[in-house]
């Protein structure tokens, strides 16, 4: 009985968390990627600057939100922007916000590390050996369509309430994009470069480390970015039910207390942290692979 | 059996054939067949022929990157079993490591492969330095390949090839991507680096693939002319032009005659290839 309630609420809440995050995960990337196209006049040029267009679109969103909040006049369903802002400030001053962000962020880092530890060696073996690939690939294709969220009910039985379940769910979600991109990167590494290294008497192990790895790195980093976004979307769902701490827990906590401004404040923080992580990963990509395409634009 | 290295040529191909099997249809196509060739130490050989006649296939087999379907390839009388740093390769698109700087590309083999065996760290660094200067790239050491012009990339590839100290230089259309003027300059430079002014004993052995007949005549001691369907050696033309050679040699009647003769051998197939 309890279990079925947990399952339904998990599915419902997971859906919200996932769609909410997906919007944030995609939009900022395209904004950063947009190049200013120079118009004929200065005014036009200003209005095409990415920083200006982002600010404008953000302002429009806040205004629309405010208008709808005033119109519905239902602070629990939709609190107004000032109410959310002041809730955000209170939570930040209280230190509670920072505590929950750091709990969730540390879980994210642990799960990413665990996923990488599994996905990178396996990805290299699969990319380098058709034999390994032919054994592992069918299993993966079977597991891949199962959303990380689907494991939450089972995870509750195995891990109980606590920090392990969100970490497990996130590691599961992060594992697939990391693995698939590693395989693709290794497969796509330039055969000519491998051949060149062979003609210089470089050992196979060193060729993997010095030629295949850097060749695959840009693709692997893309996988890590996708993994981060997916894991961050999944953590909220996992913490909503399976954890006594973290951002997802806080959202659920304030929902039960009917404190919508706090719920919204936490949702904004989820978006901000996800966006910042993605920006940092893009920075890291430019740092690690300055030769890869797109580096010239940086 | 004679002892290796006494009477054997530097490089010998005996009845070399290579067939490729298409992955899905499993249809075998003969890329090259019946290739016989002996190259003496210090000789500069150019291979010309229409596109698709198997020039790269032959070079890859000499490099040990690919094995002949039949026949043997010997270096100093010893059959080639795989790639080795005694045979350095310069690929058509240079195959520079995009994530390494000019200096790191040139030092790659010395630092990570067999060419650096038995050398101290200082000796390796000195040799890298020497080759950076040899191809006049001092000042560009810390640049990445994507920041270089085509001519500079070609120099990096040449320096990397030479820094590894191979006995045999294998070059697959190394100047193919360059503009005409740069090509002419680099051809002369290549001869200088190969050791044109040195006695034959001090020269490297070079196998140079090109589709440019005049380039072949300018560079080579002998020009190997290949033909297609399947790829085979059509003729071997000795180039009796004195060394060291400079630009003026292109204006001599003998240069014109040799170019004409080679063109005559591949004209029909060249037209066929574009038809
Ligand atoms: N790896 C390969 N697999 C199948 N066919 C190949 C392969 N490499 C070359 N060939 C075929 O062998 C022939 C000779 O190719 P190649 O040696 O590249 O010619 P060239 O360098 O003279 O232009 C071509 O018909 C080509 O299609
Ligand atoms: Mg070729």
Widest sheet, order of strands of chain B? 6-7-8-3-9-10
Mean pLDDT, all residues of chain B: 89
Instruction: Give the class of chain B from helix and strand content and strand pairing.
Output: alpha/beta
**CATH architectural label of the largest domain in chain A:** Orthogonal Bundle
Q: What would your notes on this structure say?
A:
The complex is a heterodimer of chains A (298) and B (275). In chain A, helix 4 packs across helix 12 (260-288) and helix 10 runs parallel beside helix 11. Chain A is mainly alpha-helical and 298 residues long. Chain A has helices at 2-33, 42-48, 50-72, 81-94, 96-128, 130-143, 152-159, 164-187, 191-199, 204-242, 247-256, 260-288. The N and C termini of chain A lie far apart (55 Å). Chain A has 12 helices and no strands. Chain A has 2 domains: 44-73; 88-288, MetI-like (MetI-like fold, Orthogonal Bundle). Helix content of chain A is 81%, strand content 0%. The model of chain A is unreliable at 1-33 (pLDDT under 50). The longest helix of chain A has 39 residues, at 204-242. Chain B folds into 2 domains: 1-86 and 168-275, Rossmann fold (3-Layer(aba) Sandwich), CATH 3.40.50.300; 96-166, no CATH class. Helix content of chain B is 33%, strand content 23%. Chain B starts with 10 loop residues before the first strand and ends with a helix. In chain B, a hairpin with a 6-residue loop joins strand 1 and strand 2 (28-39). Chain B contains 8 helices and 10 strands. Chain B is α/β, with parallel strands linked by helices. Chain B has a 6-stranded mixed sheet, with helices on both faces. The A-B interface holds A 190, 192-193, 195-202, 206, 210-211, 214-215, 217, 289-292, 296 and B 60, 63-65, 82-85, 87-89, 91, 93, 95, 97-99, 108-109, 112-115, 144-146, 164. Bound molecules: adenosine-5'-diphosphate and magnesium ion.
